[in-house]
Amino acid sequence: MTARTPASSTRTALVIGGGIAGMVVAMALHKAGIEARVYEAYDSRPSDRGGSRLGGGMTIAPNGQQALEAIDAAETVSAIGTPVTALGLRSWTGRHLAQLAPPADLPTTRFVWRTELHEAITAEAERREIPIHRGKRLLDATDTGAGVTARFSDGSLAKADILIGADGLRSTVRSLIDPSAPKPHYAGMLTFTARVQKTELPSTEGVLYMCYGKRAYFGYQIFDDGSAAWFANLPHREPMTQAEVQAVGAGEWLKRLGEAFTDDRTPAPDLLADTAPEDLVTTGPTETMPPVHTWSRGRMILIGDAAHAMSPTSGQGVSLASEGAVELARCLRDLPHGKAFKAYESLRRPRVDRILKHTTATPTATSAAARTAAPKPAGPFSRALRDALLPVATKVGGGGGAVWGAWQFEHRIDWDERVE
Predict the structure, then answer these.
(1) Where would you find the membrane-spanning parts of this chain (predicted)?
(2) Which of these, 79, 179, 285, 384, has the minimum number of CB atoms within 10 Å of its CB?
Protein backbone atom coordinates (compact mmCIF):
# COMPACT_ATOMS: atom_id res chain seq x y z
CA MET A 1 0.00 0.00 0.00
CA THR A 2 1.48 3.33 -1.08
CA ALA A 3 0.26 6.57 0.44
CA ARG A 4 -0.34 9.46 -1.92
CA THR A 5 1.14 12.87 -1.15
CA PRO A 6 -1.83 15.23 -0.73
CA ALA A 7 -2.28 18.07 -3.20
CA SER A 8 -3.87 20.24 -0.52
CA SER A 9 -2.19 22.20 2.26
CA THR A 10 -3.40 19.78 4.97
CA ARG A 11 -0.46 17.81 6.30
CA THR A 12 -1.49 16.93 9.86
CA ALA A 13 -4.73 16.07 11.67
CA LEU A 14 -5.84 15.50 15.25
CA VAL A 15 -8.49 12.78 15.49
CA ILE A 16 -10.51 13.10 18.69
CA GLY A 17 -11.96 9.72 19.59
CA GLY A 18 -10.34 6.32 19.36
CA GLY A 19 -13.46 4.36 18.47
CA ILE A 20 -14.07 2.63 15.17
CA ALA A 21 -14.78 5.87 13.26
CA GLY A 22 -11.63 7.49 14.65
CA MET A 23 -9.40 4.58 13.68
CA VAL A 24 -10.90 4.34 10.19
CA VAL A 25 -10.47 8.05 9.45
CA ALA A 26 -6.89 7.92 10.76
CA MET A 27 -6.10 5.04 8.39
CA ALA A 28 -7.82 6.80 5.49
CA LEU A 29 -5.85 10.00 6.14
CA HIS A 30 -2.66 7.95 6.36
CA LYS A 31 -3.36 6.47 2.94
CA ALA A 32 -4.02 9.99 1.63
CA GLY A 33 -0.58 11.07 2.82
CA ILE A 34 -1.80 13.08 5.82
CA GLU A 35 -0.26 12.49 9.25
CA ALA A 36 -3.06 11.59 11.68
CA ARG A 37 -2.76 11.25 15.45
CA VAL A 38 -5.59 9.69 17.48
CA TYR A 39 -6.52 10.99 20.95
CA GLU A 40 -8.75 8.73 23.04
CA ALA A 41 -10.33 9.75 26.37
CA TYR A 42 -10.07 6.29 27.94
CA ASP A 43 -6.67 5.12 29.09
CA SER A 44 -7.19 1.50 28.02
CA ARG A 45 -8.71 -0.59 25.26
CA PRO A 46 -12.43 -1.53 25.50
CA SER A 47 -11.57 -5.16 26.25
CA ASP A 48 -9.56 -4.04 29.28
CA ARG A 49 -12.27 -1.87 30.87
CA GLY A 50 -14.21 -4.62 32.61
CA GLY A 51 -17.67 -5.88 31.78
CA SER A 52 -18.37 -8.12 28.83
CA ARG A 53 -15.46 -9.34 26.80
CA LEU A 54 -17.40 -9.04 23.57
CA GLY A 55 -19.49 -5.90 23.97
CA GLY A 56 -22.66 -5.52 21.92
CA GLY A 57 -23.25 -7.09 18.55
CA MET A 58 -23.70 -5.28 15.26
CA THR A 59 -23.83 -5.85 11.53
CA ILE A 60 -21.46 -4.37 8.98
CA ALA A 61 -23.33 -3.76 5.73
CA PRO A 62 -21.86 -4.27 2.25
CA ASN A 63 -21.36 -0.52 1.81
CA GLY A 64 -19.34 -0.37 5.03
CA GLN A 65 -17.14 -3.23 3.89
CA GLN A 66 -16.61 -1.53 0.54
CA ALA A 67 -15.56 1.66 2.32
CA LEU A 68 -12.98 -0.34 4.28
CA GLU A 69 -11.86 -2.01 1.08
CA ALA A 70 -11.05 1.44 -0.35
CA ILE A 71 -8.37 1.81 2.34
CA ASP A 72 -7.25 -1.83 2.21
CA ALA A 73 -8.87 -2.73 5.54
CA ALA A 74 -11.82 -4.93 4.55
CA GLU A 75 -10.06 -8.02 5.89
CA THR A 76 -10.54 -6.71 9.43
CA VAL A 77 -14.26 -7.46 9.10
CA SER A 78 -14.20 -10.58 6.96
CA ALA A 79 -11.70 -12.23 9.31
CA ILE A 80 -13.90 -11.95 12.40
CA GLY A 81 -17.45 -11.56 11.07
CA THR A 82 -20.17 -14.17 10.66
CA PRO A 83 -22.21 -13.97 7.42
CA VAL A 84 -25.78 -12.65 7.56
CA THR A 85 -27.46 -13.89 4.41
CA ALA A 86 -30.91 -12.41 4.95
CA LEU A 87 -33.12 -10.49 7.37
CA GLY A 88 -36.23 -12.29 8.58
CA LEU A 89 -39.25 -10.60 10.16
CA ARG A 90 -41.61 -12.42 12.54
CA SER A 91 -44.64 -11.54 14.61
CA TRP A 92 -44.99 -12.33 18.32
CA THR A 93 -47.07 -15.34 17.35
CA GLY A 94 -44.13 -16.78 15.45
CA ARG A 95 -45.69 -16.03 12.08
CA HIS A 96 -43.16 -15.48 9.29
CA LEU A 97 -43.83 -12.03 7.80
CA ALA A 98 -40.99 -11.42 5.40
CA GLN A 99 -37.48 -12.33 4.41
CA LEU A 100 -35.27 -9.68 2.85
CA ALA A 101 -32.11 -10.64 1.00
CA PRO A 102 -29.26 -8.23 0.23
CA PRO A 103 -28.09 -7.88 -3.39
CA ALA A 104 -26.20 -11.02 -4.38
CA ASP A 105 -23.37 -9.20 -6.16
CA LEU A 106 -22.22 -7.29 -3.06
CA PRO A 107 -20.14 -8.37 -0.06
CA THR A 108 -22.16 -10.39 2.43
CA THR A 109 -23.37 -8.52 5.50
CA ARG A 110 -21.34 -9.58 8.55
CA PHE A 111 -22.32 -9.92 12.18
CA VAL A 112 -19.52 -8.85 14.53
CA TRP A 113 -19.08 -8.17 18.23
CA ARG A 114 -18.29 -4.48 18.76
CA THR A 115 -15.26 -5.07 20.97
CA GLU A 116 -13.77 -7.62 18.59
CA LEU A 117 -14.20 -5.22 15.67
CA HIS A 118 -12.69 -2.36 17.66
CA GLU A 119 -9.72 -4.52 18.60
CA ALA A 120 -9.18 -5.59 14.98
CA ILE A 121 -9.45 -2.05 13.61
CA THR A 122 -7.13 -0.71 16.33
CA ALA A 123 -4.57 -3.44 15.65
CA GLU A 124 -4.64 -2.56 11.95
CA ALA A 125 -4.12 1.15 12.71
CA GLU A 126 -1.20 0.26 14.98
CA ARG A 127 0.26 -1.96 12.25
CA ARG A 128 0.24 1.11 10.01
CA GLU A 129 2.16 2.97 12.74
CA ILE A 130 -0.59 5.50 13.43
CA PRO A 131 0.06 7.19 16.82
CA ILE A 132 -2.71 6.49 19.36
CA HIS A 133 -2.65 8.53 22.58
CA ARG A 134 -4.88 7.21 25.39
CA GLY A 135 -6.05 8.97 28.53
CA LYS A 136 -6.56 12.18 26.54
CA ARG A 137 -9.96 13.70 27.30
CA LEU A 138 -10.52 16.82 25.22
CA LEU A 139 -11.43 19.97 27.13
CA ASP A 140 -11.35 22.55 24.35
CA ALA A 141 -9.68 23.51 21.10
CA THR A 142 -8.48 26.81 19.68
CA ASP A 143 -8.55 27.58 15.96
CA THR A 144 -5.62 29.94 15.39
CA GLY A 145 -6.37 30.44 11.70
CA ALA A 146 -3.15 28.70 10.77
CA GLY A 147 -3.99 25.51 12.69
CA VAL A 148 -5.75 24.02 15.71
CA THR A 149 -4.51 23.57 19.26
CA ALA A 150 -6.30 20.99 21.42
CA ARG A 151 -6.13 21.03 25.22
CA PHE A 152 -6.68 17.86 27.23
CA SER A 153 -7.71 17.22 30.83
CA ASP A 154 -4.19 16.09 31.79
CA GLY A 155 -2.88 19.54 30.87
CA SER A 156 -1.22 18.48 27.61
CA LEU A 157 -1.61 20.24 24.27
CA ALA A 158 -1.58 18.99 20.67
CA LYS A 159 -1.37 20.98 17.45
CA ALA A 160 -2.18 20.18 13.82
CA ASP A 161 -3.60 21.69 10.64
CA ILE A 162 -7.12 20.38 11.34
CA LEU A 163 -9.13 18.65 14.07
CA ILE A 164 -11.65 15.86 13.39
CA GLY A 165 -14.34 15.03 15.95
CA ALA A 166 -14.93 11.28 15.94
CA ASP A 167 -16.02 11.35 19.57
CA GLY A 168 -19.48 9.85 19.27
CA LEU A 169 -22.99 10.65 20.39
CA ARG A 170 -21.89 12.93 23.25
CA SER A 171 -19.27 14.70 21.18
CA THR A 172 -17.23 17.44 22.82
CA VAL A 173 -16.06 18.62 19.41
CA ARG A 174 -19.67 19.09 18.30
CA SER A 175 -20.29 21.50 21.16
CA LEU A 176 -17.08 23.38 20.31
CA ILE A 177 -18.14 23.75 16.68
CA ASP A 178 -21.67 24.80 17.62
CA PRO A 179 -22.52 25.45 21.30
CA SER A 180 -26.23 25.35 20.36
CA ALA A 181 -25.97 21.93 18.69
CA PRO A 182 -28.66 19.43 19.75
CA LYS A 183 -28.02 16.79 22.37
CA PRO A 184 -29.17 13.16 22.36
CA HIS A 185 -32.62 12.34 23.74
CA TYR A 186 -33.77 9.25 25.59
CA ALA A 187 -35.81 7.09 23.21
CA GLY A 188 -37.90 5.32 25.85
CA MET A 189 -36.07 1.98 25.70
CA LEU A 190 -33.30 0.03 27.33
CA THR A 191 -31.21 -2.20 25.10
CA PHE A 192 -29.69 -5.54 26.05
CA THR A 193 -27.65 -8.03 24.09
CA ALA A 194 -25.93 -11.34 24.83
CA ARG A 195 -23.94 -14.15 23.38
CA VAL A 196 -25.45 -17.53 24.19
CA GLN A 197 -22.67 -20.04 24.49
CA LYS A 198 -24.86 -23.07 23.69
CA THR A 199 -28.46 -23.59 22.67
CA GLU A 200 -30.37 -26.61 21.39
CA LEU A 201 -32.27 -24.46 18.90
CA PRO A 202 -31.49 -25.08 15.22
CA SER A 203 -29.20 -22.81 13.23
CA THR A 204 -30.93 -19.94 11.41
CA GLU A 205 -28.57 -20.67 8.50
CA GLY A 206 -27.32 -17.13 8.18
CA VAL A 207 -30.67 -15.39 8.69
CA LEU A 208 -30.87 -12.62 11.29
CA TYR A 209 -34.42 -12.50 12.66
CA MET A 210 -36.27 -9.47 14.01
CA CYS A 211 -39.36 -10.28 16.06
CA TYR A 212 -42.17 -7.82 16.77
CA GLY A 213 -42.85 -8.99 20.30
CA LYS A 214 -46.11 -8.38 22.09
CA ARG A 215 -44.41 -6.23 24.73
CA ALA A 216 -40.87 -5.70 23.41
CA TYR A 217 -38.66 -6.30 20.39
CA PHE A 218 -36.22 -9.15 19.96
CA GLY A 219 -33.56 -9.89 17.36
CA TYR A 220 -31.48 -13.05 17.13
CA GLN A 221 -29.23 -15.24 15.02
CA ILE A 222 -28.33 -18.84 15.83
CA PHE A 223 -24.98 -19.96 14.43
CA ASP A 224 -23.95 -23.31 13.04
CA ASP A 225 -21.82 -24.14 16.09
CA GLY A 226 -24.84 -23.96 18.41
CA SER A 227 -24.02 -20.54 19.84
CA ALA A 228 -26.33 -17.57 19.32
CA ALA A 229 -26.54 -13.81 19.62
CA TRP A 230 -29.61 -11.80 20.56
CA PHE A 231 -30.63 -8.25 21.39
CA ALA A 232 -33.77 -6.84 22.93
CA ASN A 233 -35.29 -3.36 23.09
CA LEU A 234 -37.28 -3.15 26.31
CA PRO A 235 -39.67 -0.19 26.68
CA HIS A 236 -38.96 1.74 29.87
CA ARG A 237 -40.81 4.96 30.59
CA GLU A 238 -38.30 6.59 32.91
CA PRO A 239 -34.75 7.25 31.65
CA MET A 240 -31.92 5.45 33.41
CA THR A 241 -28.21 6.06 33.25
CA GLN A 242 -25.89 3.26 32.25
CA ALA A 243 -24.71 3.02 35.85
CA GLU A 244 -28.30 2.71 37.11
CA VAL A 245 -29.05 -0.03 34.58
CA GLN A 246 -25.99 -2.00 35.61
CA ALA A 247 -26.78 -1.57 39.30
CA VAL A 248 -30.04 -3.52 38.86
CA GLY A 249 -28.01 -6.62 38.04
CA ALA A 250 -27.94 -9.01 35.09
CA GLY A 251 -30.01 -11.68 36.84
CA GLU A 252 -32.84 -9.26 37.55
CA TRP A 253 -32.82 -7.93 33.98
CA LEU A 254 -32.98 -11.46 32.57
CA LYS A 255 -35.99 -12.08 34.80
CA ARG A 256 -37.71 -8.91 33.57
CA LEU A 257 -36.91 -9.72 29.96
CA GLY A 258 -38.30 -13.21 30.45
CA GLU A 259 -41.55 -11.70 31.71
CA ALA A 260 -41.71 -9.31 28.74
CA PHE A 261 -41.44 -12.17 26.25
CA THR A 262 -43.38 -14.84 28.13
CA ASP A 263 -46.34 -14.73 25.71
CA ASP A 264 -44.24 -14.68 22.54
CA ARG A 265 -44.16 -17.80 20.42
CA THR A 266 -40.67 -17.09 19.12
CA PRO A 267 -37.25 -18.35 20.27
CA ALA A 268 -36.97 -15.38 22.65
CA PRO A 269 -38.01 -17.25 25.84
CA ASP A 270 -35.67 -20.17 25.11
CA LEU A 271 -32.70 -17.96 24.26
CA LEU A 272 -33.21 -15.90 27.41
CA ALA A 273 -33.33 -19.09 29.46
CA ASP A 274 -30.08 -20.23 27.84
CA THR A 275 -28.31 -16.95 28.67
CA ALA A 276 -25.90 -16.88 31.59
CA PRO A 277 -26.05 -13.62 33.62
CA GLU A 278 -22.35 -12.99 33.03
CA ASP A 279 -22.96 -12.99 29.27
CA LEU A 280 -25.66 -10.29 29.38
CA VAL A 281 -24.53 -6.91 28.09
CA THR A 282 -26.58 -3.93 29.20
CA THR A 283 -25.82 -1.68 26.24
CA GLY A 284 -27.87 0.91 28.08
CA PRO A 285 -30.55 3.49 27.42
CA THR A 286 -31.28 3.93 23.72
CA GLU A 287 -30.89 7.52 22.61
CA THR A 288 -31.84 9.35 19.44
CA MET A 289 -30.07 12.34 17.97
CA PRO A 290 -31.86 15.25 16.26
CA PRO A 291 -30.28 16.38 12.96
CA VAL A 292 -26.97 18.17 13.41
CA HIS A 293 -27.03 21.17 11.08
CA THR A 294 -23.44 22.32 11.54
CA TRP A 295 -20.76 19.74 10.81
CA SER A 296 -17.76 22.04 10.58
CA ARG A 297 -16.36 25.40 11.60
CA GLY A 298 -12.99 26.79 10.68
CA ARG A 299 -10.52 23.93 10.93
CA MET A 300 -12.74 21.54 12.88
CA ILE A 301 -15.17 18.96 11.47
CA LEU A 302 -17.34 16.03 12.63
CA ILE A 303 -17.67 12.46 11.40
CA GLY A 304 -19.64 9.38 12.43
CA ASP A 305 -22.08 9.52 15.36
CA ALA A 306 -20.82 12.97 16.30
CA ALA A 307 -22.40 14.24 13.06
CA HIS A 308 -25.21 11.77 12.34
CA ALA A 309 -26.16 9.09 14.84
CA MET A 310 -28.15 6.22 13.36
CA SER A 311 -30.80 4.11 15.04
CA PRO A 312 -29.11 1.06 16.63
CA THR A 313 -31.34 -1.20 14.51
CA SER A 314 -30.60 0.56 11.21
CA GLY A 315 -27.54 -1.63 10.67
CA GLN A 316 -25.76 1.38 9.17
CA GLY A 317 -24.01 3.15 12.06
CA VAL A 318 -20.47 1.82 11.57
CA SER A 319 -20.92 1.50 7.81
CA LEU A 320 -21.91 5.14 7.30
CA ALA A 321 -19.16 6.30 9.66
CA SER A 322 -16.63 4.33 7.60
CA GLU A 323 -17.95 5.81 4.36
CA GLY A 324 -17.68 9.31 5.77
CA ALA A 325 -14.16 8.72 7.07
CA VAL A 326 -12.94 7.60 3.65
CA GLU A 327 -14.70 10.42 1.81
CA LEU A 328 -13.31 13.05 4.18
CA ALA A 329 -9.78 11.76 3.62
CA ARG A 330 -10.27 11.94 -0.16
CA CYS A 331 -11.53 15.51 0.09
CA LEU A 332 -8.60 16.60 2.28
CA ARG A 333 -6.18 14.88 -0.07
CA ASP A 334 -7.37 16.88 -3.07
CA LEU A 335 -8.56 20.25 -1.71
CA PRO A 336 -7.65 22.93 0.85
CA HIS A 337 -9.39 22.24 4.14
CA GLY A 338 -12.20 24.81 3.68
CA LYS A 339 -13.17 23.51 0.26
CA ALA A 340 -12.58 19.94 1.43
CA PHE A 341 -15.07 20.33 4.29
CA LYS A 342 -17.71 21.74 1.92
CA ALA A 343 -17.11 18.96 -0.59
CA TYR A 344 -17.37 16.37 2.18
CA GLU A 345 -20.74 17.70 3.31
CA SER A 346 -22.07 17.84 -0.25
CA LEU A 347 -21.04 14.22 -0.73
CA ARG A 348 -22.38 12.95 2.57
CA ARG A 349 -25.44 14.93 3.67
CA PRO A 350 -27.90 13.79 0.96
CA ARG A 351 -27.06 10.12 1.55
CA VAL A 352 -27.07 10.37 5.34
CA ASP A 353 -30.35 12.32 5.37
CA ARG A 354 -31.99 9.79 3.07
CA ILE A 355 -30.96 6.85 5.25
CA LEU A 356 -32.04 8.66 8.42
CA LYS A 357 -35.44 9.37 6.88
CA HIS A 358 -35.73 5.79 5.63
CA THR A 359 -35.01 4.23 9.01
CA THR A 360 -37.63 6.35 10.79
CA ALA A 361 -40.35 5.93 8.19
CA THR A 362 -43.52 3.84 8.44
CA PRO A 363 -42.53 0.17 8.01
CA THR A 364 -42.45 -1.04 4.44
CA ALA A 365 -40.24 -3.51 2.66
CA THR A 366 -36.79 -2.42 3.80
CA SER A 367 -37.48 -0.06 6.70
CA ALA A 368 -39.44 -2.56 8.74
CA ALA A 369 -36.50 -3.74 10.82
CA ALA A 370 -35.60 -0.21 11.78
CA ARG A 371 -38.99 0.20 13.46
CA THR A 372 -37.80 -2.08 16.22
CA ALA A 373 -36.37 1.14 17.59
CA ALA A 374 -39.87 2.45 18.35
CA PRO A 375 -40.29 2.89 22.12
CA LYS A 376 -43.81 1.44 22.27
CA PRO A 377 -44.90 -1.88 20.73
CA ALA A 378 -47.84 -1.77 18.36
CA GLY A 379 -51.34 -2.30 19.71
CA PRO A 380 -53.65 -5.16 18.59
CA PHE A 381 -55.08 -3.29 15.57
CA SER A 382 -51.68 -2.01 14.41
CA ARG A 383 -50.17 -5.47 14.84
CA ALA A 384 -52.88 -7.06 12.72
CA LEU A 385 -52.52 -4.41 10.01
CA ARG A 386 -48.73 -4.69 9.94
CA ASP A 387 -48.79 -8.49 9.85
CA ALA A 388 -51.23 -8.39 6.96
CA LEU A 389 -49.39 -5.78 4.90
CA LEU A 390 -45.74 -6.76 5.33
CA PRO A 391 -45.92 -10.03 3.36
CA VAL A 392 -47.63 -8.18 0.53
CA ALA A 393 -45.19 -5.27 0.62
CA THR A 394 -42.19 -7.57 0.43
CA LYS A 395 -43.80 -9.97 -2.07
CA VAL A 396 -43.01 -12.94 0.12
CA GLY A 397 -46.50 -14.26 -0.36
CA GLY A 398 -45.91 -14.37 -4.11
CA GLY A 399 -42.73 -16.39 -3.81
CA GLY A 400 -39.22 -15.07 -3.31
CA GLY A 401 -38.04 -12.40 -0.95
CA ALA A 402 -37.56 -8.72 -1.51
CA VAL A 403 -34.16 -7.11 -1.92
CA TRP A 404 -32.97 -5.81 1.43
CA GLY A 405 -32.08 -2.12 1.11
CA ALA A 406 -30.32 -2.40 -2.27
CA TRP A 407 -29.96 1.36 -2.70
CA GLN A 408 -28.28 1.64 0.72
CA PHE A 409 -25.79 -1.14 0.01
CA GLU A 410 -24.85 -0.31 -3.57
CA HIS A 411 -22.47 2.49 -2.70
CA ARG A 412 -18.90 2.19 -3.88
CA ILE A 413 -16.18 4.75 -3.25
CA ASP A 414 -13.56 5.20 -5.96
CA TRP A 415 -10.49 6.07 -3.93
CA ASP A 416 -8.49 7.18 -7.00
CA GLU A 417 -11.17 9.55 -8.32
CA ARG A 418 -10.16 13.15 -7.76
CA VAL A 419 -12.50 15.33 -5.69
CA GLU A 420 -13.21 18.65 -7.42
Answers:
(1) 12-29
(2) 179
